[in-house]
Amino acid sequence: MKITDVRVRLKDETKLKGIVSITIDGCFVVHDIKVIDGKDGLFISMPNKKTADGDHIDIAHPINTETRLELKTVILEAYQKALNDAKAE
Q: Cα torsion for 23, 65, 11, 49, to the nearest 10°?
């Protein structure tokens, strides 16, 4: 798997800091990955939906730790670049 594109929309909300779309292998897109500022720093939240009992379940997500770490690294690097570019303007 190769992440071929990352697009970041910056947000300036209390916890929500960005909404990200990634393209995988130039042929599959995942929208609405959130960059969240949590108590232990930034993390990503995969697209999810609320169930009838109030829980949230992921709609799309990596199935192993290695892929989750790769996604997190690439997304947070793109978020930081977008944030730096916005500050430079």
A: 90
Q: Under a CB-based contact definition with an 8 Å cutoff, are residues 45 and 52 in contact?
A: no
Integer Rg of the chain from CA:
13
Q: Would you say 21 and 82 are in contact if contact means Cβ atoms under 8 Å apart?
A: no
- In this prediction the pTM is 0.90
**Is the CB of residue 60 less than 8 Å from the CB of residue 68?**
no
> Which residue, among 36, 61, 35, has the nearest Cα to 48 in the 3D structure?
61
**pLDDT by residue (tens digit) across 22-48?**
999 999 999 999 999 999 999 999 999
Give Cα 46 distance to the centre of its chain. 6
**Dihedrals phi, psi of 57, to nearest 5 degrees:** -125, 140
Q: Which residues contact 43 (CB under 8 A, 6 or more apart)?
A: 35, 36, 72
